[in-house]
Amino acid sequence: MDIEQTKIPQATAKRLPLYYRFLNNLHTQGKLRVSSKELSDAVKVDSATIRRDFSYFGALGKKGYGYNVEYLLSFFRKTLDQDETTRVALIGVGNLGTAFLNYNFTKNNNTKIEIAFDANEERIGSEVGGVGVEHIDDLEEKLGDISVAILTVPSSAAQGIADRLVKAGISGILNFTPARISVPSNVRVHHIDLAIELQALVYFLKHYPLNEDDVEEDQ
Amino acid sequence: MDIEQTKIPQATAKRLPLYYRFLNNLHTQGKLRVSSKELSDAVKVDSATIRRDFSYFGALGKKGYGYNVEYLLSFFRKTLDQDETTRVALIGVGNLGTAFLNYNFTKNNNTKIEIAFDANEERIGSEVGGVGVEHIDDLEEKLGDISVAILTVPSSAAQGIADRLVKAGISGILNFTPARISVPSNVRVHHIDLAIELQALVYFLKHYPLNEDDVEEDQ
DNA sequence: CGGAAGTCGTTAAAGATTTCACATACTTCA
DNA sequence: TGAAGTATGTGAAATCTTTAACGACTTCCG
């Protein structure tokens, strides 16, 4: 069951969902085969990097042919655990939280926001994007065995909520607040800091001018 | 004027806004000095990495003392061009776009969303977060010399809008759509793909279990 | 069938980033 | 003033990531 997949580079792991989504597109379009070069054009990742990434999982392609879309897709489906849905909670139903609730993650994705929490009485009991909004006071009681949370609360509330989430047994937090929250070392936090992303883009524009010959790249 | 800052590692450059924001906090709190260790605890970046990052700009600290908050802050203010505000356009006033418009970027930040565009007639002419919403048809006419755009449109519209932005002279795009857009090599695109971030977090949770001894890390 | 063209998987090199570890120099305090 | 303590800045090592290059095998087509 547990195939030797533990040493896949993190950089590779982060690209897997991207590959998966694009393969899904190809499959929907009825394409039967794809080369690393074609994939490269579509996802903007160097073709050698793609081949290297795939090679960590073994020989998935065929020389002179490329990759069989169906096969590759089903392989990634297994690898990314697409068959079992990961249940997610969202804390903070502001604009950003609402954006998430309306985003159809379940399509092309193994995740589903099952429950949302907010402190604003007006929102409690309503449904946003098909997800019921509960009062933040009921967090511990209603979280159940959900192990992943999206944090879209005001940054002043971030650490407090994070502490409660940890106590309630969460294992991963996707933190959209500017606060860098502290958690025990067995809880994983990914920070996505919108203001910083924007500021970094501006900095790169000023200090890392692109030439006509450079290739636009990611992140 | 143009100090030798061109070879600062990209990884370092991406952390600068984070440092800057935290220094701002410290300054507001009236703190006079700070050590790389303290900074490390706050921003969750290894203290050696912080010292290394700072060292690319020269000797900013004092041995046995640490860094003078005021000095460091004013240094970063210059380095990050905080004195001149970068004007930004936002395309797509949905939930996510609205979240941005209500986000006060200008505080702690050198960027300001000056204008927004949308295709939905109902939104045109209104103000969201103090920013006027224009019709997407008027993009070229009203963009002016704005050089950075935040793209929060449906992914099916992403490439088309990107093409128009490029023609209108944009230099940088912060792309929140799942579409990997193609642009000329002199335009910089940073992708932030929310579904993929969530999926990657789930993947890491399953395949990269954290021990009690590991330290939670970023991105 | 045979040769040309195509594409993978991989070795090796290059490049980027992080981390260690410590000499050095400053601060503090008696 | 001097000793003890502190924290920087950096050389060197370790680690991680990307990219180039090419042998090997497939497919394609005449």
Could you walk me through the main structural features you see in this protein, from its secondary elements to its overall organization?
Chains A, B: Keywords: Cytoplasm, DNA-binding, NAD, Repressor, Transcription, Transcription regulation. Chains A, B: Pfam families: CoA_binding, Put_DNA-bind_N. Chains A, B: Homodimer. Chains A, B: InterPro entries: CoA-bd (IPR003781), NAD(P)-bd_dom_sf (IPR036291), Rex_bacilli-type (IPR058203), Rex_DNA-bd_C_dom (IPR009718), Tscrpt_rep_Rex (IPR022876), WH-like_DNA-bd_sf (IPR036388), WH_DNA-bd_sf (IPR036390). 2 copies of one chain form a homodimer. The first copy, chain A, has 219 residues and is an alpha/beta fold. The first copy, chain A, has 2 domains: 69 residues, Winged helix-like DNA-binding domain superfamily/Winged helix DNA-binding domain (Arc Repressor Mutant, subunit A, Orthogonal Bundle); 111 residues, Rossmann fold (3-Layer(aba) Sandwich). The first copy, chain A, has a 7-stranded mixed beta sheet with strand order 5-6-4-3-7-8-9. At the A-B interface, helix 1, helix 5, strand 9 and helix 8 of A face helix 1, helix 5, strand 9 and helix 8 of B. The structure holds a DNA duplex (30 and 30 nucleotides).
